[in-house]
Amino acid sequence: MTSNQKGFSLIEVMIAIVVLVVGVIGLVRLQSYFDKESEYAIAATEAMHIAEAELERLSRRGSESSDSSGVVQHKFDDIHDETRPVVGSTSARFTLVRTVENWTPKDFEPTLSDATVEAKLVTVKVSWLKRDGEQDSISLKTMISRYSEFE
Description:
Blueprint: H1 10-59, E1 82-87, E2 93-103, H2 105-108, E3 119-129, E4 135-145
């Protein structure tokens, strides 16, 4: 039995539409995923810049002055724990948390009797809220000596 029909049957058209719809849904979900990951990359990069700028500001404290530019000089003994909001360049809102631990030579060598604070272990954590409401963060650590390299 041969058929001389030309064109597509209804079943073939419906199967083609289903395959097309599944493909389009997959592309939409993929685009949504890329948008979400792009937002994360932008926020993480900006948070890293904020944390690096904070550590750099503390490490070059000896070269800062309190002149007419409004830059405040930070002395070693003035470096302490701090929490403050920061608005990024993309208007994203971040929270900067700085924690400071005093370090003495005695921490490294318990037999030493000198307990003078010679360095501070500074941890800067920058956090932000993602699109889904979850909090994300990055942390950087450094040790800052009492003796500035700029003095």
